């Protein structure tokens, strides 16, 4: 194997391998961005919904209210806490352990045409509420074509019920927006392409004739002689097809040539009369 060396003397092969490893690692990370989540019901429909959120993977979303700070990550360790998809941190007691609201190994994904509801379960248990069941986070992700990744917002914490308590969050993103379908028909597309080509032909031909050839007047029109000939041939074709009478008139009705109308010299017979 031939090894190239850079101007600094370092083997070029080492740099090539390093770039390949970085690209390989990036590809694997992107491929496994949502595969880190574990769905409670391992259904194909929920995986399809979850894959719509891939542009949001590997990113921390943070929001604060009066008392707490929340960190959310899609199928990743929120705030660096292993297995946690959404955590809560007390703003007043900074040294206090984070509260895990939901784990991404207990994920549910429900989707509509322009929204996705992501549910993380198996969070830390309540101490005095909700029959001491485990916390649960619901992140409602709605379509907003103007935002690739919007800001996370806290809606409410419902812990007044006996069971099925939850934290509700909202997030806007264009990732869940449906694809915009074109309303143009095949004929319209062909017409647009045709007029575009014609415009390029006319403008390009005009500039060439004007600037390169130095043509003036109607001769600036590209292929002027050809189009004039086409026009003449078209007119002849219309005349041939649409004429309602024979192209050649019958000799009986043909006009007399002007030459024959000239007066012949008058014959004088005066010399025959008797003197």
UniProtKB/TrEMBL annotation:
Query: Its topology with respect to the membrane?
Result: Single-pass type I membrane protein; Single-pass membrane protein
Q: Does the keyword Hydrolase apply?
A: no
Provide the protein name.
Answer: Cation-dependent mannose-6-phosphate receptor
Q: What does this protein do?
A: Transport of phosphorylated lysosomal enzymes from the Golgi complex and the cell surface to lysosomes. Lysosomal enzymes bearing phosphomannosyl residues bind specifically to mannose-6-phosphate receptors in the Golgi apparatus and the resulting receptor-ligand complex is transported to an acidic prelyosomal compartment where the low pH mediates the dissociation of the complex.
Keyword entries, A-Z: Disulfide bond, Glycoprotein, Lysosome, Membrane, Phosphoprotein, Receptor, Signal, Transmembrane, Transmembrane helix, Transport
Quote the cellular component terms of the Gene Ontology held in the record. endosome; lysosomal membrane; trans-Golgi network
Where is it mostly found? membrane
Positions of region (Disordered): 252-275
């Amino acid at each position: 194997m031939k090894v190239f060396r850079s101007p600094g003397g370092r083997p070029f092969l080492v740099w090539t391998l390093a770039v390949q490893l970085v690209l390989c690692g990036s590809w694997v990370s992107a491929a496994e961005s949502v595969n880190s989540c574990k769905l409670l019901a391992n259904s194909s429909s929920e995986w399809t919904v979850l894959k719509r959120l891939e542009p949001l993977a590997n990113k921390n979303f943070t929001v604060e209210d009066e008392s707490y700070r929340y960190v959310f990550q899609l199928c990743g360790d929120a705030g660096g806490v292993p297995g946690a998809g959404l955590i809560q941190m007390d703003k007043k007691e900074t040294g206090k352990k984070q509260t895990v609201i939901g784990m991404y190994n207990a994920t549910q994904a429900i989707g509509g045409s322009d929204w996705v509801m992501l549910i993380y379960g198996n969070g830390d248990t309540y101490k005095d509420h909700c029959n001491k069941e485990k916390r649960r986070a619901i992140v409602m992700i709605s379509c907003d074509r103007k935002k690739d990744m919007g800001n996370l917002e806290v809606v409410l914490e419902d812990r007044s019920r006996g069971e099925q308590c939850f934290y509700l969050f909202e997030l806007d993103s264009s990732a869940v927006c449906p694809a915009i379908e074109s309303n143009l028909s095949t004929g319209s597309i062909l017409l647009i392409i045709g007029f575009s080509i014609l415009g390029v032909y006319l403008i390009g031909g005009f500039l060439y004739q004007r600037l390169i050839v130095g043509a003036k007047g109607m001769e600036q029109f590209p292929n002027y002689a050809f189009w004039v000939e086409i026009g003449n041939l078209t007119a002849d074709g219309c005349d041939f097809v649409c004429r309602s009478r024979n192209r050649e008139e019958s000799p009986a009705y043909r006009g007399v040539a002007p030459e024959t109308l000239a007066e012949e010299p008058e014959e004088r017979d005066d010399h025959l009369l008797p003197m």
